[in-house]
């Protein structure tokens, strides 16, 4: 995770060809999934727990990667 590979650059260029309707669909469902993960973490682990912070970090990583793709 976080490593930069040549395939990443190719994927980012190719992502420009994703139709807007697909971007909207992906964005909606990925956001919903990430929000659900965070809600479960907060409910079961508490906002200040180390585990919740670790989950928040990885959820943010996913969100950042999706943003690079325009999703």
If you had to describe this structure to a student in words, what would you say it looks like?
The chain is mostly helical. It contains 3 helices and no strands. It has helices at 6-14, 20-45, 50-68. Helix 2 packs antiparallel against helix 3. The longest helix is centred in the middle third of the chain and has 26 residues, at 20-45. It is flat, with a radius of gyration of 14 Å. The mean pLDDT is 90.
Q: Helices and strands, in N-to-C order? A: HHH
**Quick one: how many beta strands?**
0
Instruction: Characterize the main sheet.
Output: none
Overall 3D geometry?
Answer: flat
Radius of gyration: 14 Å
Multimeric state of these chains?
single chain
Keywords, separated by commas or semicolons:
71 residues, flat
Write the layout of secondary structure elements.
Blueprint: H1 6-14, H2 20-45, H3 50-68
Helix pairs in contact: 2-3
Briefly characterize the structure.
The protein has 71 residues and is mainly α.
């Amino acid at each position: 995770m976080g490593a930069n590979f040549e395939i990443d650059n190719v994927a980012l260029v190719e992502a420009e060809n994703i139709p807007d309707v697909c971007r909207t669909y992906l964005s909606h469902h990925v956001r919903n999934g990430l929000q659900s993960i965070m809600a479960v973490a907060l409910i079961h682990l508490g906002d200040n727990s180390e585990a919740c912070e670790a989950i928040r970090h990885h959820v943010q990583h996913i969100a950042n990667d999706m943003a690079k793709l325009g999703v």
